[in-house]
UniProtKB/TrEMBL annotation:
<dbReference type="Pfam" id="PF13412">
    <property type="entry name" value="HTH_24"/>
</dbReference>
<dbReference type="InterPro" id="IPR019888">
    <property type="entry name" value="Tscrpt_reg_AsnC-like"/>
</dbReference>
<dbReference type="GO" id="GO:0043565">
    <property type="term" value="F:sequence-specific DNA binding"/>
</dbReference>
<feature type="domain" description="HTH asnC-type">
    <location>
        <begin position="1"/>
        <end position="62"/>
    </location>
</feature>
<protein>
    <submittedName>
        <fullName>Lrp/AsnC family transcriptional regulator, leucine-responsive regulatory protein</fullName>
    </submittedName>
</protein>
<dbReference type="InterPro" id="IPR036390">
    <property type="entry name" value="WH_DNA-bd_sf"/>
</dbReference>
<keyword id="KW-0805">Transcription regulation</keyword>
<keyword id="KW-0238">DNA-binding</keyword>
<dbReference type="GO" id="GO:0005829">
    <property type="term" value="C:cytosol"/>
</dbReference>
<dbReference type="Pfam" id="PF01037">
    <property type="entry name" value="AsnC_trans_reg"/>
</dbReference>
<dbReference type="InterPro" id="IPR011991">
    <property type="entry name" value="ArsR-like_HTH"/>
</dbReference>
<dbReference type="InterPro" id="IPR019887">
    <property type="entry name" value="Tscrpt_reg_AsnC/Lrp_C"/>
</dbReference>
<keyword id="KW-0804">Transcription</keyword>
<dbReference type="InterPro" id="IPR036388">
    <property type="entry name" value="WH-like_DNA-bd_sf"/>
</dbReference>
<dbReference type="InterPro" id="IPR011008">
    <property type="entry name" value="Dimeric_a/b-barrel"/>
</dbReference>
<dbReference type="GO" id="GO:0043200">
    <property type="term" value="P:response to amino acid"/>
</dbReference>
<dbReference type="InterPro" id="IPR000485">
    <property type="entry name" value="AsnC-type_HTH_dom"/>
</dbReference>
Length: 148
């Protein structure tokens, strides 16, 4: 991935609906060249897809929470399979420390969250943190200005 690919990714991460023509004008390539580069990044799974950034509360999901789960080793495959089927689980990460997994979940109410917690208790101990305020929304890393 070269600098031009990173510039294209930066443009697409700001607006996934930007046309090949607009991108080509911004990066100084032809539209077919931009299309070829984007298709290669899609094929290489650098670009995994395109999505809409929703306002969760505006569409009725009033509760965001992070759930840490201490899953027993023998139940890990079953746990991963289970969370894959749960539409309210937005993210699932394997983590270090006392807990094995960290889930980000969205629910319409605390009652719905409570029902979900009751279902996942069978996998192990949980610790839940409900989000009160969000000061920075998720976004893609800026590949042009990354700091490591």
């Amino acid at each position: 991935m070269d600098k031009l690919d990173k510039e294209i990714l930066k443009i697409l991460s700001q607006n996934g609906r930007t046309s090949f023509k607009q991108i080509s004008e911004a990066v100084g390539l032809t539209s077919p060249a931009v299309k070829t580069r984007i298709e290669k990044m899609e094929k290489d799974n650098i670009i995994k897809g395109y999505s809409v950034n929703l306002d969760n509360k505006a569409v009725g999901f009033m509760v965001t929470a992070f759930i840490s789960v201490a899953v027993e080793t023998a139940a890990r495959d079953e746990f991963y399979s289970y969370v894959q089927t749960c539409p309210n689980v937005i993210e699932c990460h394997g983590i270090t420390g006392h807990y094995f997994a960290l889930l980000k979940v969205l629910f319409k109410s605390t009652m719905d969250l409570d029902n979900f917690l009751n279902k996942i208790q069978k996998f192990g101990e949980t610790s839940t943190n409900i989000v009160l305020s969000t000061y920075k929304e998720p976004h893609n890393i800026n590949l042009m200005d990354e700091e490591i």
